[in-house]
Amino acid sequence: MPSAIVVERLGKRYRLGEREPYGALRDSIARAARAPWRLARRLGRREPAEPWVAALDNVSFDVAEGEVVGIIGRNGSGKSTLLKILSRITEPSSGRAEVRGRVGSLLEVGTGFHPELTGRENVFVNGAILGMRRREIARRFDEIIDFADVDRFVDTPVKHYSSGMQMRLAFAVAAHLEPEILLVDEVLAVGDIEFQKKCLGKIGAVSRDGRTVLLVSHQMNQLRRLCRRCVWLEAGRVHEIGPGGETLAHYERALLAPDAAAAAGRVFRQWQLAGGGHIVRIVDGPVTIDLRLALAEPISRGHLGMSIYSEREELVAGWAFEPLDLEAGSRDVRITVASLPLRPGSYRLVFSLFDRGNNVTGGALVEQWAALPPLALDVPPLSHPQDHWAGVLNVSAELALADEAGADAPIVSTSA
Amino acid sequence: MSHAPHTHVIVPRSGWAPVELGELWEYRELVYLLVWRDVKIRYKQTVLGVAWAVLQPVLTMVIFSIFFGKLGGLSSDGYPYPIFAYCALLPWQLFAFGVGQASESVVLNQRMITKVYFPRVIMPMASVAVGLVDFAISFLVLLVLMAGYHIAPSPAIVAVPVLALVVVAAALGAGLWLSALNVTYRDVRHAVPFLIQVWFFATPVAYATSSVPPAWRMVYALVNPMVGVIDSFRWALLGAGGPPPAELGISILAITAMLVSGLFYFRRMERRFADVV
């Protein structure tokens, strides 16, 4: 099967300063007065004057022709940004994507609908906005009106429609798009159950026609029915790509865990183990923790602390990394712990970041973050079989009977 | 499904890019429908409807005749002042409307810009084109007025459509700059009405170019490209001032520069529209 969509190392970053949607000329002038050379340089070249934050980072995947692929992930994980780049609404900052075929994107239903215009007029305007030809719309007009079930009101301004009717009409136009590739963002959530079923049927039919569909949705059951494959995005990166059902199951399990995205700090954005996930399955050997930081300002000669607390809130271990210099922007930090011989269970990681010193030398605390989800140790218990006597460490021990002759001694090991 | 006529490679762009004319042509129906939509909406829910398109220029002409013609005693090169003023109001209103609408076009249509792809240049283009409908109506009104004053149109009247296109180009040139600036700097929205007003007084609409010293006329036409256009309208409609003056050539040159630079600037800025708007 040839690919319909090829995404290679796609990235999109925003300037932190651009959080404010637009500026006033006054501010630009004030900035220019303060630092004319900087403005001149910035006008000349696109010089990153502010730190960057990645909305999409190094995302790669392929979609075969005729495939229906779901995109899942928490809010802010980059799903919509991805669709916007593929539908050419916004440009990537790095990487590339190739889209083979006529693209119809449905990021919203009823784009361009005007309340003063009649149903008929809106169908034509909206159809043109979605990329349909006038002749094409005229040919399918009756079908569209029929699908939306508004035939009696075709020549009534849509401001007199109920919101449900407006939605149905808007979706009906979209459903009659005939692109080779359809990009859909969360629009199936409109209308009543009956209408939703109709829409699902339509998308199913679209894919049976051999057309390619990329679908963003939060409705797991819809995705399960429609998608053969799913791409799971987490903080702008591909977290998992796999068969629909399986990936969805993993995602749902992760959703049940405490919401990492909601728990993200201002600076500490997220953490995960080097191989992905938050579960350690080995007792010996290094454990590598990847930590994602978003720094509004650089850190100079600062301090990064990491501590591990047990469920009983005992401090099990702590480390300090200093002096530390970090540039502003999105930063990934990797911490490798030589071994983590701890009893199976759930542990809390706490990170702290200081600028210009540490907690005793008068450094400024930038942030302290109780990491979520917690670190889980899924390892065989090697110490005392009764939890009460097992303690904190998970280290095997051996007992040998001292023979007077010192010959072959039977060995009793704790790890059977 | 093995054919792939529409392969798009999406990569970060940088630097200046020209307008893709082929793509614009593909989207011509969208331009047409957006213009049609805006024309429809403009007069819906108004009591007088399309009558506004007649009333606006006529009332403006009446006010000008009273204040500039009678009270101000401005020269009208020997023509009845109302007709003299109206001939200039015709292109001026097309221009002023186009600049005003185009500069707001990207911001007003932000929903569309953040949800659908289309060549962004379409937005200011359609806004300017909407003014052509009013222009056509005003033009018919002018013919009626001229008949009332027993003035026969000059044969050069056939040049009016071409001159109207020059006005559209001028409005689009200014509108492209302002609409792109408006996305980043919302100050533009407050500055535009003021700019248009200043521009109006700098343009020979209420007065005649003959009141400008001849030595300065070329500079005048270069700095304010609407000068050559307005004079040419008076020539085409009334036969005033002889064949198209050299000013028109200079004005067209200035308009072309404004339009081309506007297109490039707009194309450069449009990359950020969906992120910033």
Quickly describe the structure.
Chain A has 416 residues and is α/β, with parallel strands linked by helices. Chain A contains eleven helices and 20 strands.
Tell me what the structure shows:
The complex is a heterodimer of chains A (416) and B (277). Chain A is an alpha/beta fold and 416 residues long. In chain A, 26% of the residues lie in helices and 34% in strands. In chain A, a hairpin with a 2-residue loop joins strand 8 (229-234) and strand 9 (237-243). The longest helix of chain A is centred in the middle third of the chain and has 16 residues, at 193-208. Chain A is elongated. The two termini of chain A are 51 Å apart. The model of chain A has no long low-confidence stretch (mean pLDDT 82). With 277 residues, chain B is an all-alpha fold. In chain B, 69% of the residues lie in helices and 1% in strands. Chain B contains twelve helices and one strand; from the N terminus they run βαααααααααααα. Chain B has helices at residues 21-26, 28-43, 51-71, 81-108, 110-115, 122-148, 160-184, 187-201, 217-223, 226-238, 246-269, 273-276, and one strand at residues 7-10. The chains are: A alpha/beta (416), B mainly alpha (277).
Number of strands of chain B: 1
Count of alpha/pi helices of chain A: 11
Oligomer: heterodimer
| Cα end-to-end separation of chain B | 37 Å
Helix content of chain A: 25-40%
The percent range for strand residues of chain A is 25-35%
| Computed structural class of chain B | mainly alpha
Class based on secondary structure composition and strand pairing of chain A: alpha/beta
Give, in spatial order, the strands making up the sheet with the most strands of chain A.
5-6-7-3-8-9
Coarse shape of chain B: globular
Major beta sheet summary of chain B: none
Secondary structure elements and their pairing?
The complex is a heterodimer of chains A (416) and B (277).
Chain A: E1 3-15, H1 25-34, H2 36-44, E2 52-64, E3 68-72, H3 79-86, E4 94-100, E5 103-106, H4 119-129, H5 134-148, H6 163-175, E6 181-185, H7 193-208, E7 212-216, H8 220-226, E8 229-234, E9 237-243, H9 244-256, H10 260-263, E10 268-273, E11 279-280, E12 287-295, E13 299-309, E14 315-326, E15 329-337, E16 345-355, E17 364-370, E18 375-377, H11 387-390, E19 398-400, E20 411-413
Parallel strand pairs in A: 3-7, 3-8, 5-6, 6-7, 11-18
Antiparallel strand pairs in A: 1-2, 1-4, 8-9, 10-12, 12-15, 13-14, 13-16, 16-17, 16-18, 19-20
Chain B: E1 7-10, H1 21-26, H2 28-43, H3 51-71, H4 81-108, H5 110-115, H6 122-148, H7 160-184, H8 187-201, H9 217-223, H10 226-238, H11 246-269, H12 273-276
Helix pairs in contact in B: 2-6, 3-4, 3-6, 4-6, 4-7, 4-8, 4-10, 6-7, 7-8, 7-10, 7-11, 9-11, 10-11
